[in-house]
């Protein structure tokens, strides 16, 4: 069965960095574009980043552009989100999701940015 399992997030100080990972199983990972979403209190769910099946193409929300990097390792069936220069506004639950074909969601991981 399909599973998307995010790594544990954490508490980070403003300006700090954190890396998230999402381990996929139960489907052909290399055939699926992947994405990260988030939804902060009082805000709509936001598409944070998208990566193509090969990893050659990426897109980012304006709010994270220049700070976050999405990547993938198809040999490990894993997609990553490297978050740098973190801001308190980045605090929320982050979700891994397939971005093509049938949509599968991870259960989410909490990221808190606070001094």
Report what the structure shows.
By secondary structure, the protein is mostly beta strands. It has no helices and 10 strands. It has strands spanning 3-6, 10-12, 18-25, 34-39, 46-51, 58-60, 68-73, 78-83, 92-98, 109-113. The chain is globular, with a radius of gyration of 13 Å.
In short:
The chain is mostly beta strands. It is built from no helices and 10 strands.
- The gross shape turns out to be globular
- How far apart the termini lie comes to 40 Å
Which percent band covers the strand fraction? over 45%
Please bin the fraction of helical residues.
Answer: under 10%
Compute the number of strand runs: 10
Q: Which tags fit this structure?
A:
115 residues, mainly beta, 4-stranded antiparallel sheet
